[in-house]
Amino acid sequence: MKYGAFGLVEVLGASNAVLVVDKMLKTAGVSFLTWNAKCGGHVTVFITGDVSAVKAAVDAAPESGCEIINKAVISNPSEEAIRIAESEM
After folding, report:
1. Cβ proximity of 58 and 24 under 8 Å
2. pLDDT tens per residue, range 16-52
3. Cβ atoms of 63 and 15 closer than 8 Å
4. Considering only Cβ atoms within 10 Å of each terminal Cβ, which end of the chain, N or C, has fewer?
5. What is the DSSP string of 39-74?
């Protein structure tokens, strides 16, 4: 599958991840792809869409009221990055 961009946002806790996903989906025309929860409560949310929409959604994530640990936008992801994201689904 072809992706224009990936957006990744890391928060603490699943409930915060839901709040962040909700804010991002309401902000721009993006799609929720998956999330990855690790020990310690860190949850990384993956979204996808065109580059401008993903950037707007990731930039709006702090407006959810949650503490954002890290965030990134990957435009035109490589085949390996796609495999990594798809392996989490």
Report:
1. yes
2. 999 999 999 999 999 999 999 988 899 999 999 999 9
3. no
4. N
5. GGGEEEEEEEE-HHHHHHHHHHGGGGSSPP-EEEEE
